[in-house]
Design brief:
The structure holds two protein chains of two kinds. By secondary structure, chain A is α/β, with parallel strands linked by helices. Chain A has seven helices and ten strands. Helix content of chain A is 35%, strand content 26%. The longest helix of chain A has 18 residues, at 159-176. The N and C termini of chain A lie far apart (38 Å). Chain B is mainly α. Classes of the chains: A alpha/beta, B mainly alpha.
Chain lengths: 226, 265
């Protein structure tokens, strides 16, 4: 279980997160919100990349708020694949397994489920966008993280490839049986991948029953702001 | 017609080529050509037979290489602070000091080094401390060339995808590990450029080198101070030859940099 309690973050006078709260069990929770509403900031606070001003993050009832990212066991998939260009695909995927984390069995499962076995010795520069995203996901999951955070991981991918990738992403992340937080602003993507849904509004997170509901709320917000 | 378009109408289209090309040719190209023009076979032969010339050539290469190697190591450290600790006092001080060697007269830099590592503080090493040794030449060259290397590496760090660092951190890397395993291997081009620029700057240093390292023929004399000595001695033809060698060395360095850039483009 991942619990996020009362996270507050401001950059100067601009308040980005105002007491954001979130609870995720072994499910895929999709966090929906307009661009710049603080979704990525919240994700990075959970990952430990950014420090919050107030609030705490609990993972399996352990307070990890003050832990560095390397001590949190988080699988983080950023918006752009951010593959290590000087390393081969397999070295990218094995990167987080250096300290004895993960297992060869899981690695083999990930490689075959994501169809990566034929490209293991290639360099990231030789891969298509879809394969880069798959490698980025496999790299995050190989060390068996205790939570998975995906920050619009398919935003660079065209719609046809996304159709193929989403079921793969869902199947693979479900395999891990840990809390998954998936950020997107695409309604179809949210419906296809998510078990539960939340919407981010005014620096706070509210649970909702469906992705479509989130987009109705967002539309209203946009209209008001226009 | 509005006011701004009326103003632009009176700016001649070729105004930049009118002043740029003549001034560039007169102030940059002409002095270099003047050196080559004054190159005399007799001067070349006498210089190439001069043991002190070859000694100053060797000193220049060794000291400039050592200074830029030391500069690169320090600049790699600066790059780390630039990436992870921009809000610290150490970074702010280092960043400020990067502009100082370029801004102060290099005689002042030489005097500062003399006072810091000379007889008063390092008298236990020798009568003159570290001053007037080849090591002093290295330190003087380092002092003026390091900022170039640091700035180049900092630009390389800025060009690195920050998300790669974030991912490396979540995959178990401390900031230092992420810097050495992920950031630096992708910055080969910047490190090479920083080294070459620092080397090039070190080659050309005169004032700081003479103040701290001295101009002892055969011992701490470098090409720049050899040229100065030959002019003082009235051996203009030998000074011209040594100057052309300096220019050739710089041209080789610039060519190396541009070939490598083209390869990686």
């Amino acid at each position: 279980m991942l619990k996020v309690n009362g996270i507050y973050k401001a950059y100067g006078t601009q308040e980005v997160l105002k007491s954001a709260c979130l609870e995720i069990g072994s499910e895929i929770k999709v966090l929906i919100g307009i661009n710049g509403c603080g979704k990525s900031t919240l994700l990075k606070i959970i990952a430990g990349i950014i420090k919050s001003d107030k609030g705490n993050v609990l993972l399996r009832e352990k307070n990890i708020t003050h832990l560095a990212p390397e001590e949190r066991r988080v699988g983080y998939v950023p918006q752009h694949p951010a593959l290590f260009g000087h390393k081969s695909v397999i070295d990218n995927i094995r990167y987080g397994m250096r300290n004895g984390l993960g297992s060869e069995e899981l690695l083999e499962d990930l490689l075959s489920m994501l169809g990566l076995n034929d490209i293991l010795n290639k360099k990231p520069g030789e891969l298509s966008g879809g394969y880069k995203s798959r490698v980025s996901l496999a790299r995050a999951l190989a060390p068996e993280p205790e939570m998975i955070l995906l920050d619009e991981p398919l935003s660079d991918i065209d719609a046809a490839v996304k159709e193929t990738l989403l079921p793969e992403f869902r199947r693979v992340t479900k395999l891990m049986n840990v809390p998954v937080l998936y950020v997107t602003h695409d309604p179809a993507e949210a419906e296809q991948i998510g078990d539960t849904f939340s919407v981010m509004q005014g620096g706070r997170v509210n649970d909702i029953d469906s992705a479509n509901h989130a987009f109705e709320i967002i539309k209203k917000d946009k209209l008001i702001s226009v | 017609m509005n006011k701004s378009s009326a103003q632009t109408k009176y700016i001649p289209k070729d105004i930049v080529s009118w002043f740029f090309l003549p001034l560039f040719l007169l102030l940059v190209v002409f002095p270099l050509l003047a050196l080559v023009w004054n190159l005399k076979p007799d001067g070349i032969v006498r210089t190439l037979k001069d043991w002190f010339f070859w000694r100053s050539f060797k000193n220049t290469i060794i000291a400039a290489f050592a200074a830029s190697a030391l500069g690169s190591v320090l600049a790699v450290g600066f790059g780390y602070y630039h990436l992870f600790h921009k809000n610290t006092f150490t970074y702010k001080l280092a960043n400020l000091m990067n502009d100082l060697p370029a801004a102060i007269p290099h005689t002042v830099a030489g005097l500062a080094l003399l006072l810091a590592f000379g007889r008063k503080t390092c008298g236990f090493i020798s009568n003159t401390g570290l001053a007037f040794t080849l090591f002093a030449v290295v330190l003087a060259m380092f002092f003026v060339s390091y900022p170039l290397c640091a700035r180049t590496i900092a630009s390389g760090v800025d060009g690195t995808d920050r998300e790669m660092v974030d991912v490396a951190r979540t995959l178990g890397d401390s900031p230092v590990q992420a810097y050495f395993r992920i950031v630096l291997p992708l910055m080969g081009e910047s490190i090479f450029a920083g080294f070459v620029l620092a080397f090039s700057r070190a080659l050309s240093e005169f004032a700081a080198v003479v103040m701290f390292g001295g101009n002892l023929p055969g011992s701490t004399q470098v090409l720049a101070s050899y040229v100065f000595t030959k002019v003082e001695e009235g051996e203009l033809e030998m000074a011209v030859t040594a100057s052309v060698v300096c220019i050739l060395l710089s041209l080789i360095i610039v060519a190396l940099l541009s070939i490598r850039r083209r390869k990686h483009a």
